[in-house]
Design a protein that fits this description.
The chain is mainly alpha-helical. It contains three helices and five strands; from the N terminus they run ααββαβββ. The protein folds into two domains: 2-101, Orthogonal Bundle (Non-ribosomal Peptide Synthetase Peptidyl Carrier Protein, Chain A), CATH 1.10.1200.120; 110-141, no CATH class. The chain has a three-stranded antiparallel sheet with strand order 4-3-5, with no helix packed on it. Strands 1-2 form a two-stranded antiparallel sheet. This is MscL family protein.
Length: 147
C-alpha cells in the first residue's frame, strides 16, 4: 500500500503541479505586496485630501465599514491581471515548451470550428458529423467554418 502511494506521489505530473503551486503562491505574495504598497498608494493619491482612498463615503464620515473603496477594487483587478500574466509567462509557456520537446501537446489552441445550420451553434469541431446540441446531421463539406 505504501509503495502504491509512493508511486502516486512521485509521478511526474504530480510533482510538476506541486512545484507550480508553490511558485504560484510565492509569486502571489510578491504581487500582493506590490499592489498593496505601490499601486494602492498611487490610486489613493488620485482622490486627494485626507480621504480613505479612491471611492465614496456612503455613511458617516471616516467610517471604513460604509466606505465604497473603488481603489481597492482597481488594485485587486491589477493584482489579478499581473498574477495571471506571471502564471502564464513563467509557468504555462515554459511547461508547454518542455512538453512539446517531449512530444506531448498541452494547452493546445482549439482547432477550426463550424456552425450547425439547424441550431446555429458555433462551437462544433470542423470534423463533426452531428451537432452536439441539437443532434442534427451536419453536411460532410460546407457549413460555415471559422477560426
Amino acid at each position: 500500500m505504501l509503495k502504491g502511494f509512493k508511486n502516486f506521489v512521485m509521478r511526474g505530473d504530480i510533482v510538476v503541479v506541486a512545484v507550480g503551486l508553490i511558485i504560484a503562491l510565492a509569486l502571489s505574495t510578491l504581487i500582493k505586496a506590490f499592489t498593496d504598497f505601490v499601486i494602492n498608494p498611487i490610486i489613493a493619491s488620485l482622490q486627494g485630501g485626507h480621504s480613505l482612498g479612491l471611492g465614496w463615503q456612503l455613511g458617516r464620515a471616516g467610517n471604513k465599514a460604509t466606505y465604497l473603496d473603488l481603489g481597492a477594487f482597481i488594485s485587486a483587478a491589477i493584482y489579478f491581471l499581473i498574477f495571471m500574466a506571471v502564471v502564464y509567462f513563467f509557468i504555462v509557456l515554459p511547461y508547454r515548451h518542455v512538453q512539446a520537446r517531449r512530444g506531448v501537446v498541452v494547452f493546445d489552441e482549439p482547432g477550426p470550428l463550424r456552425t450547425c445550420p439547424a441550431c446555429l451553434s458555433e462551437d462544433l469541431p470542423a470534423a463533426a458529423t452531428r451537432c452536439l446540441h441539437c443532434c442534427a446531421d451536419l453536411p460532410a463539406t460546407g457549413g460555415r467554418a471559422h477560426a
